Amino acid sequence: MTSRTDDIRLGADIGGTFTDIALDVRGTIFSTKVLTNYAAPEQAILDGLEIVARDAGISPAEIGLVIHGTTLATNALIERRGAKTALITTEGFRDVIEMRTENRFEQYDLNLKLPTPLIPREHRFTVKGRIGAEGQELQPLDEAALEEIAGTIAAGGFGAVAIGFIHSYMNPAHERRAREILARRLSVPISISAEVSPQMREFERFNTVCANAYVRPQMADYLARLQSRLKDMGATCPVFMIHSGGGLISVETASEFPVRLVESGPAGGAIFAADIARRFDLDSVVSYDMGGTTAKICLIEDFAPQTARTFEVARTYRFCKGSGMPISIPVIEMIEIGAGGGSLAWVDAMGRIQTGPESAGSEPGPACYGRGGERPAITDADLVLGKLDPDNFAGGAIRLDTAASQRAITRDVGARLSLEPQAAAFGICEVVDENMANAARVHAVENGKNISDNVMIAFGGAAPLHAARLCEKLGLDRCLVPQGAGVGSAIGFLKAPFGYEALASKLVRLSRFRADEVNALLADLKTSAESFVRAGTSGTIRREITAFMRYAGQGWEIPVPLADEPFGEGAVADLTEAFRRNYARFFGRAIDGLDGLEIEVVTWSVKASDERPAPERHTITTGTRTVSAGVTRPVFDPATGTMQISAIVERATLSAGDRVPGPAVIVERETSTVVTTTFDAVMQSDGGILLVRKEIAA
């Protein structure tokens, strides 16, 4: 019998259209893309595993570790396909998740509609009992009422319970006691906000624990099924999940806190891009991840993606903060829009071409897939413009029907705007690229950055098709398309550390700072974070300590990195200086001259992760040898607005230093890189492709 080995690892990323598989066999990557199976998502992983294991010449039993990321939790929230969930909260706070923050996210919309709460009012129950803002008990918990509520939930056929009491982040005693009482009568999973999201701001915290409970039965069932079926095919290795903050956690933790998986796939992509940035010593990078359903932009500085403590899913107004469902967990910060290869194109009432957020997905897929889809998707537009080879898509696994794409585009777009199929297809792609460019500009401005100062790293099955045009719009001179770009997120999983971030809200004004209390709090957070990490590794663990601080009276905080050491006598002065320095970095200057203006810490964070080996360093080259190709085909060039005879080059035939002048298409099994007339492509020493403007000398 073959035994498994730790130097063979598999990354599996379930997306809305494709499931990406990457197998690392002692440093050599074998990869594939298979269509996502909605009815049984784990089947696509098994199918992909079988393909890459065969290509690598190994058996599933030899795999030492499976690392998995999925959009299933996200999709369950967006499509409202979770369990029937009950919320138990403090008396008087039943409607918090419906009232939200009372912020008008679209100020001038007279018909503004707030997103529907995840749990309807009739499924929300209240109980007497009150914890104060300092953590003191103001009113005892009404345990008799909880017994009655438990009976109502048991008779109501609920599949999960969420508990969110006011100020439980300061004192979780009431929530824990409520769980004990309910667990005696109920056999469904119970989530408490003090464990899921121990942070202040009750709307975000309540909504997060509701989301966790809502998807918990479905995700626990899926993860158990995945493990069982992997064992059935011989892969008896442990399975770890990548969470939204970019670290690895055990399946058991993921089953208990599935809301941490909501942005797991995109997090893998950001880690992949950060690894490439470190490899080439690029300290300012914008990652561009475009798959089958969505496109994501993430800013990476000093080889690390930006992070946040909260984000939104299922926004009802595009780009509009506040219009979605807030999830209060650590997450890699990025902007995401419904612009993937499967995003559907349509014409609105004003005669404008629009794309997404609705996607054809894998079932039925774009019209060109021949799987029953009749509406035009971005992939159909790419095909009509010549960017894709209909006979060599996904390595020839899927034959594309160009005529079906033309019919769909003509019917839904061209006929309505009196455009030929090619012109309509160009319009679709231009709208997609402009939407992505706008999203990137907005994201950069919100973070105080100039987008044109960055190098782009493009990956995902569709990003290399659009990257050059996006660079033209954003004024970027260089773009890297890494080796394995088509399955970038899955490769990123293999590079992710075992990591976890523990947070706790404890409001501390520096004028009343007590080092012993804060040291005790941080010690608990360190123990909590490290316990999750130790479930996957026995290696060296490094910690990052962050205080989220503000001037008293401000509504939001800024992250202030701190040294990993206990606070002593000079703690207040050190915290004040660190806060002022970071405040000036964010806003240009600190606030001076206001007597009595207090500084306070709102939330404390400890991020623990194991140390990852540094990637091999490479130097960017702009090319020494010009390569010509014998194979050509017409490809639409947006800069000239015409079809251009473009070189078709197999990526595998290129060597480091080879320069391919645009227009060209560099093809591989999982994606194709379109080189427009304004760019050349240069093969790098690590197997990546650099798109570089022609005016940059070779």
UniProtKB/TrEMBL annotation:
<dbReference type="InterPro" id="IPR008040">
    <property type="entry name" value="Hydant_A_N"/>
</dbReference>
<dbReference type="InterPro" id="IPR049517">
    <property type="entry name" value="ACX-like_C"/>
</dbReference>
<dbReference type="Pfam" id="PF05378">
    <property type="entry name" value="Hydant_A_N"/>
</dbReference>
<dbReference type="Pfam" id="PF19278">
    <property type="entry name" value="Hydant_A_C"/>
</dbReference>
<dbReference type="Pfam" id="PF01968">
    <property type="entry name" value="Hydantoinase_A"/>
</dbReference>
<dbReference type="InterPro" id="IPR045079">
    <property type="entry name" value="Oxoprolinase-like"/>
</dbReference>
<feature type="domain" description="Hydantoinase/oxoprolinase N-terminal">
    <location>
        <begin position="9"/>
        <end position="184"/>
    </location>
</feature>
<dbReference type="InterPro" id="IPR002821">
    <property type="entry name" value="Hydantoinase_A"/>
</dbReference>
<feature type="domain" description="Hydantoinase A/oxoprolinase">
    <location>
        <begin position="205"/>
        <end position="497"/>
    </location>
</feature>
<protein>
    <submittedName>
        <fullName>Hydantoinase/oxoprolinase family protein</fullName>
    </submittedName>
</protein>
<feature type="domain" description="Acetophenone carboxylase-like C-terminal">
    <location>
        <begin position="529"/>
        <end position="683"/>
    </location>
</feature>
